[in-house]
Design brief:
The protein is of the alpha+beta class. It has three helices and twelve strands, in the order E-E-E-E-H-H-E-E-E-E-E-H-E-E-E. The protein folds into two domains: 26 residues, no CATH class; 105 residues, DNA Polymerase III, subunit A, domain 2 (DNA Polymerase III, Chain A, domain 2), CATH 3.10.150.
């Protein structure tokens, strides 16, 4: 059971459930524009998440032996998913993508990307903007942002 109390003129609200009590006070002023923090991608692609997951998994040993970077480079024909390590070499796979805004590329941390892709089984939308986090949109999941990694192309 939850009990709720609201102060006169909505100055604060209180919730009590079990042994926990939460009091929230309203702060006067304008709310921050959180939408401005979300990047607006200029280059978008659609990819089947299981295909990308498989391709990223193929780069694991090479990516982790080097700097942990997985490179995604796409054109209208497809996407190359690869990692390079100077001492070992390169692992690369080409998969199909729908490149809506032409060619592009981005480098992402292997561990973050592999973890994000787990359990995803349909179309994933990836968005890239200059010097901004990469956006990942998946049905029924919150918008996810990952900072790109800088590397030599």
């Amino acid at each position: 059971m939850i009990s709720v109390a609201i102060a006169e003129k909505n100055a604060w609200i209180s919730f009590r459930f079990g042994g926990v009590k939460v009091i929230s006070q309203i702060i006067q002023g304008n709310a921050p524009d959180h939408a401005s923090l979300i990047p607006r991608p200029t280059n978008k692609i659609n990819v089947m998440a299981p295909e990308l997951c498989w391709a990223v998994a193929r780069t694991k040993n090479i990516a982790l032996a080097a700097s942990g970077i997985v490179r995604l480079k796409w054109s209208e024909e497809g996407m190359d998913v690869y990692a390079t390590a100077e001492e070992i070499g390169e692992a690369s796979t080409t998969i199909h993508v729908d490149a809506m805004d032409g060619p592009g590329h981005v480098a992402i941390d292997y561990k973050y990307l592999a973890e994000y892709l787990k359990g995803k089984d349909s179309v994933l939308k990836i968005g890239i903007a200059d010097k901004a986090p990469v956006t990942f949109e998946y049905p029924g999941a919150p918008l996810t942002l990952m900072m790109p990694m800088f590397c030599e192309w």
